Amino acid sequence: VQSWVLMATARAPTNIALIKYWGKRDEALILPTNDSISVTLDPDHLSATTTVAVSPSFKQDRMWLNGKEISLSGGRYQNCLREIRKRAGDVEDEKKGVRIKKEDWEKLHLHIASYNNFPTAAGLASSAAGFACLVFTLAKLMNVKEENGDLSAIARQGSGSACRSMYGGFVKWTMGNDADGSDSIAVQLASNTHWDDLVIIVAVVSSKQKETSSTTGMRGSVETSPLLQYRAKTVVPSRVLQMEEAIKSCDFASLVGLTCADSNQFHAVCLDTSPPIFYMNDTSRRIISLVERWNRSEVSPQVAYTFDAGPNAVLIAPNRKVAGLLLQRLLFQFPPLPDNELASYILGDKSILREAGLQSMKDVEDLP
Ligand code: PMV
Question: What tens digit of pLDDT does each residue of 52-111 get?
């Protein structure tokens, strides 16, 4: 009996949308109603690490997420596995004396183990990092020759936003025109070294699971919100062009204006949906007010806020100095309390806190 195991491991960070994706024109293939633009986080924070193993002794495909077995029967996993298997190549490992022909992959089973480097309970989108990492690791193990752009069209079928995590830096997901989704892919606008003094702070406002999944929410908005139609056709196309320009020229004031406006419009679409969807809570709205006041009191806008399908705030500062001042302000306004987790989960480089004179606040800590 042959007995061997081949493995591959990779890590992928999550991404934060600056121009939001909200609405599918094709639910099965996950084709969006508009382009979106995001920034990929540093893999040290909010990333998924996935190991995929193949062995003739495996009887079925199985997956463990953070150590707990999960079902792979859902359409999204099945689509990703099928599309990768279709593109698998020959693999040879001389040391182990293993030769896998590309047609063998249809018969071989996989074991997949994925870990997030942040608490899954923290209510932070993990599907983007998870599916990007799954597709990338499978492609590595199975010798898939496709470029990251083509792989992004597969990751997209796991979770729409996952396609943007196939690249670092600033990324655009072009909605595409083709019915089969082959041109609905991610493209890198700028690498992670372009504009690398930006600081992104994720403030966990609530660690509860969201009540309305993005799939259910998007379906409701597509079916009932007139604002979604207007946004997708009229607002987003020009906003995307302006955001591309702001990124290219490192124009922070424009990035702030566009990011905040787009987050607010996305949440307005949610309110315009019947029945309405509320992702932000009172703390989220207090953070918006705080940032709006802050930005208006200065000559030019200083920080951006954006909220996805949940109450947690993502704040973007132009540099470490402003990030430190912002953290001081947030901690003053929202002292760590048992029912207010905001200050307990500020992600990022601890040295920013030190520079801001906050190192003695023991309640402020990085997520593990
Ligand atoms: O890819 P999904 O189904 O998790 O949807 C993501 C939707 C938003 O996070 C709200 C916006 C975005 O572009 O990431």
Answer: 999 999 999 999 999 999 999 999 999 999 999 999 999 999 999 999 999 999 999 999
- The pairing of beta strand 36-40 with beta strand 15-19: antiparallel
Q: Where are the alpha helices (DSSP H) in the chain?
A: 75-87, 127-141, 148-155, 214-224, 226-230, 236-248, 252-271, 282-296, 320-333, 350-355
Confirm or reject: Cβ of 36 under 6 Å from ligand 1: yes
Residue 350: predicted pLDDT: 53
Domain with 331 in it: 199-355
Pocket test for ligand 1, best of 21, 171, 215, 278 (most atoms within 8 A of CB): 21
Q: Are 320 and 197 in contact (CB under 8 A)?
A: yes
Closest by Cα among 248, 39, 313 to 164:
39
Q: Is the predicted ipTM greater than 0.95, yes or no?
A: yes
- CB of 312 closer than 6 angstroms to any ligand 1 atom: no
Question: How many domains does the chain contain in total?
Answer: 2
> Could you tell me the distance, in angstroms and rounded to a whole number, from the CA of residue 125 to the centre of ligand 1?
8
pTM (2 decimals)? Answer: 0.92
Could you identify the atom of ligand 1 that is nearest to the CA of residue 125?
A: 4
pLDDT value at 147 more than 70: yes
Instruction: Tell me which of 169, 190, 211 is where a domain ends.
Output: 190
Identify whether residues 184 and 217 lie together within a single domain.
no
Residues 252-286 pLDDT 10s: 999 999 999 999 999 999 999 999 999 999 889 99
CATH number at residue 109: 3.30.230.10
Ligand 1 proximity of 161 Cβ (cutoff 6 Å): yes
Structural domain includes residue 368:
no
Residue 208: inside a domain = yes
